[in-house]
Design a protein that fits this description.
The protein is an alpha/beta fold. It has a nine-stranded mixed sheet, sandwiched between helices. Helices cover about 35% and strands about 20% of the residues. Strand 4, helix 2 and strand 5 form a beta-alpha-beta unit. Helix 2 crosses helix 9 and helix 13 packs antiparallel against helix 14. It has a domain of about 260 residues.
Length: about 475
């Protein structure tokens, strides 16, 4: 299982593209063009329409085309595992057109100045907004704006095949363009306040999950020091390796985040990710790592949103929901991600660094140590995990989408006898859960609104 997971992570997380730190000035500012709301089928692929009621929350979803000329890059010198990498511009003037999905407050006065720009994940052949799906509730509570960027060729090609009338102009000739496209997306956000309802941003944060996390690792180490596009990064669900610099070229097999970056980096890992990333664990003045115990690379909460969008777009398996042999992991990873974004926002604005966290306990960085209920020891411990009613594992099996279930994890309910042993009555369960939630809140791993939601769920739960 361990070998299979490492192989799958290598295949799914490895981008097919380019990396770089350029030593030339950025290209001219890209052009931004609004996509008419009724163009083509009438909604953004992988967007929120019919999945989330943004209007009821005071938010709007809009879509734009981003067009410009991008550079590609080559590696300069030896890339060692400390991440202090140099690159040179390989080609310039490569035309591209891609799309941005913007989710922002309808009332510009609600916008607090923070923009989260996500490198949309294409591991399954279509754009998936993983970090938006986990933390959209936090973004809305905080008044953030969100921008999802189609950054890779697979995502661009899928847009054109699913809705050619809406996305006929989209064109990314290869993943070698992806790093400069992501840099120019931040440039466009800063230069076009109309994207954000008319107000300029104060902080622009880059985020990405899985394959996108590997690309962000390379972006942070090689592109950010020269382009200075972002004010901070959340790198979610990475392995030890990084993305390659050119199409068809294997990237570095071991890559820490460079410690002289100048902007903060938050590395946020699920339990699925730790075996593949334990060799590059970091906690430094500008890099913070949390490993969230009991969580999976993807989970039930996100999968429910992906399935709903897929049923509408029919982008994978003709719209059929993804299924696995066992119930998918339902641990509340989103709570930790919400807290991570709050800390990163403050950190990028010059505030205090996030709290450190004990890593998940492992033997020789190969085997996760577990308690009598088969739950991991150590790590960031959310109340649903510290006061469990199930065993939460990082991998699943089977399923109708090849490779997906190995990353989705499992939830195995504890037996009624074991639950009664742990919690003799409902009051005992609620008291233990509330104490765990308050510990996580004090530690900084849980935000107050999520603490309150979690405790209300415990109070309503039929436990035992």
């Amino acid at each position: 299982m361990r070998r299979a997971l490492l192989v799958l992570l290598t295949v799914l997380l490895l981008p097919l593209a380019t990396t770089a730190t350029a030593q030339a000035a950025p290209a001219a500012a890209p052009a931004v063009t609004a996509v008419p709301a009724d163009a083509g089928r009438g909604w953004p692929v992988s967007g929120a329409r019919g999945v989330l009621d943004l209007a009821a929350r005071g938010y709007v979803e809009e879509e734009y085309l981003l067009s410009g000329q991008a550079d590609t890059f080559d590696q300069a010198g030896l890339w060692t595992d400390d991440g202090r990498w140099a690159t040179r511009v390989a080609t310039t003037g490569n035309p591209y057109t891609t799309r941005l999905v913007v989710v922002r407050p309808r009332d510009p006065a609600r916008f607090t100045g923070t923009v989260v720009v996500e490198w949309l994940n294409v591991s399954f052949g279509v754009d998936i907004p993983v970090d938006f799906s986990q933390s959209y509730e936090h973004f809305i509570r905080e008044g953030y704006a969100y921008v999802g960027v189609t950054t890779q060729k697979a995502g661009a090609d899928k847009l054109k095949s699913l809705d050619p009338a809406r996305y006929g102009a989209v064109n990314l000739s290869g993943d070698a363009l992806s790093y400069d496209v992501f840099s120019q997306a931040a440039q466009a956000v800063r230069a076009n306040p109309q994207l954000l309802g008319g107000r300029p941003p104060a902080v622009v944060l880059g985020t990405g999950h899985s394959q996108s996390a590997l690309r962000l690792t390379t972006f942070a180490n090689a592109v950010q020091p020269v382009r200075r596009a972002y004010d901070g990064f959340l790198i979610h669900g990475r392995a030890a390796l990084a993305a390659p610099i050119g199409d068809g070229v294997v990237g570095p097999l071991s890559a820490r985040i460079r410690t002289d970056l100048g902007v903060p980096v938050f590395v946020l890992q699920s339990e699925t990710d730790v075996i593949a990333s334990a060799s590059v664990r970091q906690d430094t003045a500008r890099v913070r790592t949390w490993e969230v115990a009991g969580t999976a690379h993807a989970d039930r909460y996100g999968l429910d949103l992906y399935n709903a969008a897929n049923a509408r777009d029919r982008s994978i398996n003709d719209g059929a929901p993804t299924t696995c042999d066992q119930p998918v992991n339902s641990m509340t990873f989103r709570y930790a991600e919400n807290a991570a974004f709050r800390h990163l926002d403050r950190w990028a604005r010059g505030g205090a660094a996030p709290p450190t966290a004990t890593p998940i306990s492992m033997l020789l960085n190969l085997v996760i140590l577990r308690d009598g209920d088969r739950n991991a020891l150590g790590g960031v411990r959310l109340p649903d995990f510290d006061v469990p009613v199930a065993s939460y594992a990082p991998n699943n099996s089977g399923g109708n989408v090849p490779g997906a279930c190995l990353l989705l994890g499992t939830t195995t309910p504890l037996t009624p006898e074991r639950i009664r042993q742990r919690y003799p009555d409902h009051a005992a369960y609620v008291a233990a859960f509330t104490a765990a939630a308050d510990r996580a809140l004090r530690a900084g791993y849980l935000l107050q609104p999520d603490r309150d939601e979690a405790v209300a769920r415990a109070q309503a739960a039929p436990v035992p």
